[in-house]
Amino acid sequence: MPTLTIDGRTITVENGLTVIEAAERLGIMIPRFCWHEALGAAGACRMCAVMFEDGPVKGLQMSCTVAAADGMVVSTDHPEAMAFRAQVAEWLMMNHPHDCPICDEGGQCHLQDTTISAGHSLRRYQGPKRTYPDQDLGPLVTHEMNRCIHCYRCVRFYQEYCGYRDFGVMKNASQVFYGRYKSGRLESPFAGNLTGVCPTGVYTDKPSRHKGRRWDMQRAPSVCMHCSLGCNLTANARYREIIRLEARKNAAVNGHFICDRGRHGFGAANLASRPRAPMTDGAQVSLAEAVKTAVLRLQNVTAKHGPGSAAILSSPRANLETLAALKLLAAETGFRAPEYFGSPVEIAKAAAAARGVCAETAVSMGGLAKADMILVLGADPVNEAPMLALALRQAARNGAAVAVIDPRPVSLPCDFERVAVSRRHLEACLAALVGKSLEGASLAGADMAAYAATLAKTPVPASPEGLADRLDALAQKLKTAAFPVVVCGFDLPGESAPGFAAACARLLKASRGESGRAGFFPLFPGPNAMGAAMALMDQRDARSDPEPGDARGVLGLVEAMERGEIRALLAVEADPFALFPDHERLRKALANLDVLVVCDWLPSFAAGAARVVLPCRNAFETDGHYVNGEGRLQKSCKVFDGGEPVSLTGAGGHPPRTFAAGTPGGEAEPSWRIVLSLLALAAPGVAKAVRSQARPSLSRAVSCALADEACGAEGVVLAMPRPFAPVAPALSDPAQNANPGMELYLAEETFGTEEISSYAPITAELAGPPVLTLPARTAAALDLADGGSVNVPLPGGGVLAVLRVSEAMAPDLAVLSRRPGIPALCPGGPIAPFDPATLTKAAAGTDSAGTTDAKETRA
Amino acid sequence: MEKVLFRNRRPDRPATLTEYRQSGGYEGLAKALAHMTPKDVAEAVRASGLRGRGGAGFPAGRKWESIDPARKGPRYILPNTDEMEPGTFKDRILVNADPHLVIEGIILAAYAIGAERGIFFIRPSYEMDAQLLEKELQNAREAGFLGKNILGSDFSFELSVHRSAGRYICGEASAQINAIQGRRPNPRKGVRSTDRGLWDRPTVVNNVETLSCVPDIIRRGPEWFRTLAATPEGDGNKLYCVSGMVASPDCFELPMGAPLREIIFEHAGGMLDGREFKACLPGGTSTAFMPASLLDTPMDFDNMKKAGQRLGTGSIIVFDHKTCLVRATINIINFFVRESCGWCTPCREGLPMIRDLLLRIENGEGKEEHIARLREMTAMMRHAYCAFAPGAAAPVEGLLAHFEDELREHIRQKACPFGLGKPRCGDWEARQFAY
C-alpha cells in the first residue's frame, strides 16, 4: 500500500495502481488520451506527463505507465510538465481538421476538452495537413480518420479487449491508419463502443448522425432491455425521440461497454406505429375513458363468470413497479394471479435459476473476470447475451479456462474448449465433469458428499468420440480452479438444467472451504425475467425455498381459454405472441375471449387485436426497477415524458413545430399507474391506500426487503443465503442414445430475434436473412453445400434460409435463426423433431431469403 | 595494430570455413564447450568489458547475466543485422569478410545464455548476405558446430536467417521481437527482453559486431581483449565506417577510442581535394553533428559522452564546407519522419513539425522564432516512448548547438546561402495512398 504525494496532497493506494489513477482518486484529472481504465496504459500519447520531483522515479514521466510507489512526490502543474503537455496537444492538433462545427463529437469531445486544458490555443503549424480516405464501416459507425489523434484506443479495444480481428492498424509513421483492409461492416457486435472509446470524432454513431449536440439531449441513466444482463446505459432523447444510447460505467455489470444490440435496439421507442392513443373498439378516447371501459368490461365478465374468469398476463420486460401493481390488482379483484412466461417449462427453468441465485454463489458479470474456470452450459453468449461473451473474454485474458457445453457451433471471442454434445447430454456432461473434479474433495454435509458421489458415477455419453477423456482433462482443471463459475443458458437447456447447474455451483463452492469461491451465473429471457421469476414465488418468507405455485404461463391461459374458464385477459407490457409459439392456437383462443385489454407501448400483434388499448410508457419514459440475471436490482430513470416524436408530428418542417394544448401522443402513462387506476375503479376500497403512495412498493413484487432500499449507482444485489438442495441432472435414457433423432432448434441471434429490438429497423436490418446451420455429415449426406439456399419445411409453412455447414456442432441438431414470424411456424416451441431429408434446395436466383409463409403482421 | 575482426578480410570474397579455422576459428567454441560452463563464458565476456556495438553500448555480459538462470524452457538469441542506421555498413562488411566469425560468436553467446534457437534478423536489402549466411550455416552444421550435441557436448543450438520486412525501427530489440512474431514492429517498454522477449521467453538481442568479438575473448582471454583498446575506457577493437567527403571511404577496424581526427585524416585519407572539413556525424544519423573543434575526441562510448556526443554505431559521415547542413539535416529528418513506427506523439507528429520548420528555414521563409521553437521541440523529444525520437532529433540538436549561425544566415538572407533551390513543403510525403 504505497503512500505518495500528488500536488501537495497525500494518498495511500493499493499496490499496482498507476499514478494517473491515484491522482484521479484525489480528484486530479491528469490529461490523457491513450490511457483508458478498461484498456490500461499504452504510453503512446504522452499527454499524461507529470513531474516526479522526489522518490524512486525522477523527472518528467508518463503518469499512466508509472506505478504508484512509496515516497513519490508528484507535481502535475510543474512548468516543464505543463509546457510538454501543451506541446503534445499542439502536435496532436497539427493535422486535426478543426471540423468541430460539423462533428458529432463536438460538445462531448475529449480532444476539445484536453486541448484547452493542456494549454494549447494558438496554432503555429502552417504546413499542409495529412488527410485520409475514410471507410464505410457499416450501418452503425461512421469513420472520419482525419480527426484521428492516434491514441490506439480503438484498436486496443477492438483486438485486445474484444478479440475481433477485422479491424486494426495499418501503415506507419504519420500515416498510421485505423480501419479494415476493405470497407465493410465491422464484424464485432461490440463495434459501437468505438464511438465511446475514441477520444475524438473518428468513430461516431451513424444512426444518430447530426441529430443534435450533447447539450441538446435530454439524458438519463437507463438500463438495457435486450437481455437479462442489465447493462447500464445513458439514454439521449431530443424532440421526443430517443436519439442514441451510450454505455454507462458499472464495474459490477457491464464495465465501460455495451453490445450493439443494446446500443441500437431501441428503435421501437420511436416507431410511428406505436400505440400512442387510448382506443376502445377502434375509436380514440381519453385514457381515463379507456380505463373506465376496460374496468367495466372486465367487471361484466367477472360478474357473470366469477373473478377467476379474468386473467392477467405480463412479461419479463415489465418493470418491478408494474409487477407489484399487477399483484395488488389480482389480490384485490380476485383476478387470476399474473403470468409472466410462456409455458410451465419456462416457469420451472426461471424459478430454478432464480432460486439458484443465492448469496453463496452470487457472481456479477464484472466478477466473472476474476474467475479462473468458467463452465458454460447450454448458452451461446454472443447470440443470447453478447456482453457475457466479452466478460468471458476478460476472464480468459486473465488466464481463466472457458469450456462451453452446447450442441450449437458456439463461437466466442476467446480461446475456449468446445464440448459440442447432443442437447440430451448437456447435464450428463456437467454432472460427470463436476463429479469427477470433486472426487476426493472434502464436502461438509453428508448430503453434499452423497450428491457429489452420485454425480461422479454419471455415465459419460458415448459420442462424440474421446468425450470421456476431454471431460477428465476438464475435471482436472476444475479440481485446481480457485474460483470456478457455472454459466447456465435458458432457452436451449432442459427443464432441470438451471437448478442442476446451480446445485453444481454450490458443490464447487462447498468443496473450496469457508473462504473459497464458486459462482452461478444464469441467463434469463428478458430484462426483468429474474424479477418476474421472483414475483412468481411465494411471498411467505424470502429465506424459505419458494415454489412458483400453480402458474402455467401463456400455455395455461390458452388451455383455460379453450375450456371457457378464462373469458377476459388483461395483458400489460406483454405480447402473448412473443411468449407463446403456437400463434394459430393462440389467435383462436384470443378470438373467443369476451374481453381483451392490452396495455403496452409496443405495436404488438396483441395490441392490434385488442378492443381496448391502453398505451403505456416504455423504460425511457418512466422510472422503473429491473432485476438482472445475477439478482441485481437496478433503476432505469425517465429520460423524457414521451409523446410522438417531433420528426413524426412536424411533417418535415424545420424547425418542426405544431401548436397544441398537449403533447401529441402524450397520453401514455407508466403501466403501473394505469394498473393502479384500473384498481382504483375496480376495487374502490383500496383506492385510497393506493393513491397515498406515489408508486407501489417493490417488495410487494419480489418479496425482498432490500428491494425497497434505494439502489445506488451499481444497484443492489438481492441474492439471499439459501440452504443447499440437490437437483438430479436429466440424463437421457440409453435406448434413445443409440439412435437419437435429429432436432431443429430455433436459435436466438445477436440481432433480430430478441423481442423489443426486433421492432427496431436497424437491428432488423443487421439480422440479415435466416440461416440454417447443419452438421457437416448431415449436409454431406444430403449433398447440400455451405452458402446455398434451402427451403426449411416447418409445420406452419416453409422458410427460405441460407445454409451454413459446421463441423463444430452436435450431429443431432439443426439450428435455424429465430426471426419474428418464424416461431409461429413451429407451434411446438423452439425445439422440434426434424427430418433433414425434407430440406429442399432453393432454386438458384431466388432473391433474398426470408420467411415465405409467415403471414403475420403486427399492429 | 592487430586485426581481429577483419583478420580474414579479403578484397574479393568472404573467408571460408577452412580459412577461418586456420586463423583460430572455432577454437574458442571448442574451449568453451570442453572447459567452461555457460556462466564462465558470460563472466569472461563481462570481464572483457565488451559493450554493445549496435549503438547503445550496454555491457554484453551484463545483458546475458540478467537472464534468470532458474527460468526453465526455451530461450532465444537474436543476432541483429538490421543495420538500418544511415551511414552504417560495418555489419554487412563483417558478415561478408568472415561469416564464421559471426556464427561462432552467436553459438558462444547461445551457449552462455542457454539458448536453443537463434534467429538471425537481417535487413532485406542484404539479400546476398542472407544467402551467404544460409550457405555458411549449412557448412557449420555439417562441420558439427551447429545442430544437436555440438562438438559432442550436450549443447544443441539451431540458427536460422530471418529477413526483415525492412524498417529502421526493427533494429530496436523489442520492436525486432514483435516483428519476428508477426506483429507491428513497435518498441515496447516495461518488460525486459531478457525476461519476456520472443514469445514471452528470455531473449537476448545483440548486434553481430558485438557477437563477433566473443570468439577471441574466449580463445585469448578477457585481459587480452582489454589491451586492444586505445583508451582505458575503451573495449577491444571497433569497426568504424567512414563515408562522405573523404578521399577513401571504407570500414576500418581500429582500437576502440581512436581519435576522430586520426580516423578521418589518416585512415580515410583525409578530405577530398578542395574540400574542407566542416562537420561530421560520428555514429550514424541518430547522433549530433560534431564540429572541427571536437576532432580530437577519442571515439569510445565514455569519452564521446564526456564530449556531449554519442558514439552510436561509430559510423562517421563527413560533411565539407560546401554542404548546407540545414539541407543535410532535412534529408536526415525526412528519413526519420518516414521510419517512425507511429506509436507515440512526439515521434509521429513532432518530427514532421521539426521537418516543417527546417524546410521553412531552408526555403527562405524562416523566422528567428523558429530557432527557439526548434530548440524547445528537439529537447522534448527525450520524452518520447523509445530512443528513436531523441536519436532523430540529435542532428538537429547538433545543428542548433554548433551551426546556429548557419540557420540564422538562412533566415537573414531569406534563402539558402549555399544557393540550393527551394525544397517545397509537403513534397516529402507521398500524399496519395489507397486502401
Q: Any idea of the CATH class of the domain at 279-341 and 528-616 and 668-706 in chain A?
A: Alpha Beta
Q: Write the CATH fold name of the largest domain in chain B.
A: Rossmann fold
- Distance separating the two termini of chain A: 62 Å
Number of helices of chain B: 18
Which range does the strand content of chain B fall in?
Answer: 5-15%
What's the CATH architecture of the largest domain in chain B?
Answer: 3-Layer(aba) Sandwich
Q: What is the CATH class name of the largest domain in chain B? A: Alpha Beta
State the secondary-structure class of chain B.
Answer: alpha/beta
Describe the structure.
The complex is a heterodimer of chains A (859) and B (435). Chain A is an alpha/beta fold. Helices cover 29% and strands 17% of the residues of chain A. Chain A contains 27 helices and 33 strands. Chain A has a 7-stranded mixed sheet. Chain A has a 6-stranded mixed sheet with strand order 14-13-23-22-21-15, sandwiched between helices. Chain B has 435 residues and is α/β, with parallel strands linked by helices. Chain B has 3 domains: 17-226, Rossmann fold, CATH 3.40.50.11540; 237-320, Ubiquitin-like (UB roll), CATH 3.10.20.600; 325-429, NADH-ubiquinone oxidoreductase 51kDa subunit, iron-sulphur binding domain (de novo design (two linked rop proteins)), CATH 1.20.1440.230. The longest helix of chain B has 18 residues, at 345-362. Chain B starts with 16 loop residues before the first helix and ends in a 22-residue tail after the last helix. Mean pLDDT of chain B is 94; it is low at 425-435. The A-B interface holds A 43-47, 49, 60, 65, 83-84, 87-88, 90-92, 94-95, 124-128, 130-131, 133, 135, 149-150, 152, 169-177, 179, 181-182 and B 167, 184, 189-190, 337-346, 348-350, 352-353, 356, 360, 373, 376-377, 380, 383-385, 425-426, 429, 431, 433-435.
Key structural traits:
heterodimer, A: 859 residues, alpha/beta, Ubiquitin-like (UB roll), Rossmann fold, Dimethylsulfoxide Reductase, domain 2, seven-stranded mixed sheet, six-stranded mixed sheet, 27 helices, 33 strands, B: 435 residues, de novo design (two linked rop proteins), 3 domains, five-stranded mixed sheet, four-stranded parallel sheet, 18 helices, 42% helix, globular, disordered C terminus
